[in-house]
Write the structure tokens for this entry.
Amino acid sequence: MTTKREKFGGRMAVILAMAGSAIGLGNIWRFPYMVGEHGGAAFVIVYVVATLLISLPVFLAEVMIGRRSHTNSRDAFARLSRQHPFWKWAGYLTILIPTLIACYYSVIGGWSVEYFLKSCSLSFVRMSPEEASGFFGPFAASPWTPVIMHLIFLGITVAVVAGGVKSGIEKFSKISLPVLFVLILMILTYSVSLPGAGEGVRYLLHPDWNELTPRTFAYAMGQSFYSLSLGMGAIITYGSYVSKKENILTTSAGTAVSDLLFAILAGFAIMPAVFAAGIEPGAGPGLIFQSIPYVFAKMGAGMPVLSAAVSILFFLAIIVAAMTSCISLVEVGVSFLMERSRMSRGRACLILFLLCGGLGVLCSLSFGPLADAKVAGMTIFDLFDWTCSNILLLLMALLAVVFVGWILPRRVVHDEFTNGGRLAFNERLFPAVYFLIKWVAPIAVVVIFFTNFIL
Ligand code: TRP
């Protein structure tokens, strides 16, 4: 099959597109609530170490698979392994996972849309801080609004994907990330100045090692993979758009570091507000939607115009960041359907909209009408998230590093990492990186996978 694949234009474009995929709700919404649920500063430390030692090698492995095979993530494994049946099967996982994630990711995207609209009508600025943080519960539990918002968010995302790789994705990430960065800094500055915020800063900086349980590792690594969009074909698919001239170490490390930075900043913007507002850090998926409006309401009492402007821009930036991520989640499935069954882009997009839209409705309702429908003690939403982040992602990331470390010939890996020996620095680093990919990452992932089931 010789379908011509589009290419990114230049290094900055690659990093921006990959960072656009990586930086999203995972950093701003998921990271803070994971920190709150799984041990505060201890979680943060495990998370940072896991990102540098395990996720970065996995990231490199995925970019290599994509760039080498030059095709979508499902066919990549099959092509590089000369159609070995096991790897053909593995390839399907890389389609399944992002599609499952898109279902509930767009529910959170929908919440952001609602909060954006509320900001535009100046609601948070007018509320008392307590009302603002209390808005979340009844909203998430109501049967209609969140579902409609979810479908609106997903609909726009899919429409962007229908527009094609370059025009759609690159434009979006170029504007949204810098804006989001500045806004998070502003919120952070205000948030740490709130009365009672010091506790939140302490919570992030002083590890309480008693909080560190075996499960912390599983959740921290799952979070790290999730945040970098690993283990789901997204980076493989992006890798296939990366030109042979690009230095994959620079682009991968650039993406990983910017992603880490965003998560940590988001943590420092949100946790102090959580403590100032007296919200339970382990409050779960609603954490930022409870704490951030509190900040805006507080700010609104003294500086209403500034507060209104920041809240509108903030939720807008979150929507865009969530959308760039959701775009690449959906893109995996779309690209697969197009290249496999030669379906038109439009039709592939429609199929994904119906599928993810439908399943997402169930996830959304699990905060209200379906709150009691539980499997193994988890709501439908938590079940989707746990299955994807703690089980499937780890499995898929393992397959990716094993594939590059053990199946691909060392010569090929070397060739990809050093661009045929032309990159002197990468040449020197290669033995260490190869060791991480071949031994450290797979063993760590296997061990951590099983800690999921230790109580
Ligand atoms: N990494 C994204 C974030 O932090 C979420 C995400 C998970 C993702 N898997 C993905 C994005 C796959 C794109 C592709 O929000």
The mean pLDDT is 92.
